[in-house]
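DATA SHEET
Item: assembly model
Revision: 1
Owner: S.N.
Input lines:
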Amino acid sequence: ETGVTQTPRHLVMGMTNKKSLKCEQHLGHNAMYWYKQSAKKPLELMFVYNFKEQTENNSVPSRFSPECPNSSHLFLHLHTLQPEDSALYLCASSQDGNTIYFGEGSWLTVV
Amino acid sequence: RKEVEQDPGPFNVPEGATVAFNCTYSNSASQSFFWYRQDCRKEPKLLMSVYSSGNEDGRFTAQLNRASQYISLLIRDSKLSDSATYLCAVNSGSSNTGKLIFGQGTTLQVKP
């Protein structure tokens, strides 16, 4: 059983849709992250939350809106995305910024 | 210059071979270093942390060279199951902020 679970695992959405990705960590960690992995590109850090407070927004477009209601849950709200936003979105958690553990990811396709 | 650079490969090696990957980083203040393994269409999984004194876990050895700003991963006696992409990750600041910057990965293919 993975300590970080993400849903949905696969999502296809139109450019005018609004959808959300959900992440839950069962490791008791105090930091959570969203990373994006596009084909042939390195993992890109999007957002960092420490104790449910956002501490990093890596110049992410406003069409991606994160929400962290508590230290165990993290959402990524998506609206008016572009086809180039199609990627694997990975949630991760850590304790005090140490080793990061990833969820299985959500494969997003924007059509 | 990219913050973290890796040779994308692929490295094609026979079973039983020894293979080494390097990863260079640009931020001299970085304190934490890691190797992750990523299988096709799966999430990255931590392989090992890299300590200043170097560390070994079975067939895997990781080294840190601060002077030249690179980390290395050595795999001995390669197995078919070692075929994967190996990502190096470097903490982007001088403290454990959890802001890991990843290289693009090095692909290893171990052939029978």
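QC remark: Chain A is about 0% helix and 60% strand.
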